[in-house]
Amino acid sequence: MTDKVVEKYLNNFSLINTQGLEAFAQEQSKLLSPDLVATTTDYRGTLTKHGIDGFFRGLAEWSKHFQSNHQSRKEFLEDTPVRVSVRVLNRLGLVIPVNGRTVSEENEHEWTEEFEVGSDGLITKVHVTVHLKEPRS
After folding, report:
1. Gap between the Cα atoms of 137 and 117, Å rounded
2. Do β-strands 66-67 and 92-98 pair in parallel, antiparallel, or remain unpaired?
3. Other Cβ atoms closer than 10 A to 27
4. Which residues, in sequence order, are CB contacts of 26 under 8 Å at separation 6+?
């Protein structure tokens, strides 16, 4: 991977399972610009938060609706020193059922994460998009 800060950002999520949320927050904060713009788009609409604290508030809100084991496979769609786009491939838990489902299998959703990195090497933008596909009958 070209951009090491995004690689570390993605790897830090495993800290939640191994060392807890506090360790995760401490390490993740080192990678985020104070001017960060963090956006999520999913079946609820689009939510934008600003700054490092906003990022963690947005993540907490997202976690009320989705669960992941943080060991997801990733497919890099774009990988440059200033812009990275990643498709996340995994099973996604739906905390609040959607169309009667509490789990979205890998082939039942599209999950992408897009990043921009500033000249200071910190992440300035994160946009997470999760589109649930219509269930097949």
Report:
1. 42
2. antiparallel
3. 16
4. none
Half-sphere exposure of 3 (CA within 13 A, CB side): 26
CB atoms within 10 A of CB 38: 23
Place of tokens 């689009």: 46
The rounded average pLDDT for each run of 10 residues, N- to C-terminus, in the chain (137 residues) is 82 89 95 97 95 95 88 87 92 92 92 95 96 78
Check residue 86 and give left, alpha or beta (phi > 0: left; psi -120 to 50: alpha).
Answer: beta
> Residue 137's pLDDT is what?
56
Structural domains of the chain, with CATH: 4-131 (3.10.450.50)
